[in-house]
Amino acid sequence: MSGDVVLRCEGLTRTYGRGETEVHALVDAELEVHAGELVVLRGPSGSGKTTLLNLLGGLDTPTSGAVWLGDRQVSGASERDLVELRRRDIGYIFQTFALLSPLSAAENVELPMRLVGLPAAERAERTAELLAVVGLADHAQQRPGELSGGQQQRLGIARALANSPRVIIADEPTGQLDSLNAEAMMSLISSLVHERGVAAVVSTHDPRMAAHADRILEIRDGRLGRRHGRHSSGAEPI
């Protein structure tokens, strides 16, 4: 593998409802993601992809099992600790971009740095660097509504990298994009993961995205399986 284990879960289960209405959204999932590794999570709608990502990213609490970021347990952490963890160590990329429309592109990237108290000069330097990395240096003062869908998702990637996270969680990041922009977006995510040594878990139902994965995991009916990847030696049944 590319590097040390950054993100892992054991026995991760999420159940909603009780009795006849009980739904097992995720069942006994186990996973390790390494620094500099891009894991692509595939499965049909309702298979449990988003549930798993929300649990890994500290946005939801498991019914049982645990999640660790490095040697720090995410599941069971206090809300205050989770807020700090999400701000500093985890970058999120959303299908719907989730940008703040009143703010410029530069201000959207800068905001996460403000929240952790980064000095103004460092914020400005890092914002300029990230906008250049994603090809938006000339669009710093434009608002999200003045950008194309592909540009908005590039801006979302820059924002996710604002505080140099250890992990990137991306839920269908190409779902709102045409095929050309989707391919460019996954290529960009892949190159950034490998260049910066970030651990990334990306969900998609687009089979074309698999070409960029170091490892592909299939999820169906809340159960996590495995397929071939550049670093895997074989396939395990779902």
TrEMBL record:
<keyword id="KW-0547">Nucleotide-binding</keyword>
<dbReference type="InterPro" id="IPR017871">
    <property type="entry name" value="ABC_transporter-like_CS"/>
</dbReference>
<dbReference type="Pfam" id="PF00005">
    <property type="entry name" value="ABC_tran"/>
</dbReference>
<feature type="domain" description="ABC transporter">
    <location>
        <begin position="7"/>
        <end position="238"/>
    </location>
</feature>
<keyword id="KW-0067">ATP-binding</keyword>
<dbReference type="GO" id="GO:0005524">
    <property type="term" value="F:ATP binding"/>
</dbReference>
<dbReference type="InterPro" id="IPR003593">
    <property type="entry name" value="AAA+_ATPase"/>
</dbReference>
<protein>
    <submittedName>
        <fullName>ABC transporter ATP-binding protein</fullName>
    </submittedName>
</protein>
<dbReference type="InterPro" id="IPR017911">
    <property type="entry name" value="MacB-like_ATP-bd"/>
</dbReference>
<dbReference type="InterPro" id="IPR003439">
    <property type="entry name" value="ABC_transporter-like_ATP-bd"/>
</dbReference>
<keyword id="KW-0813">Transport</keyword>
<dbReference type="InterPro" id="IPR027417">
    <property type="entry name" value="P-loop_NTPase"/>
</dbReference>
<dbReference type="InterPro" id="IPR015854">
    <property type="entry name" value="ABC_transpr_LolD-like"/>
</dbReference>
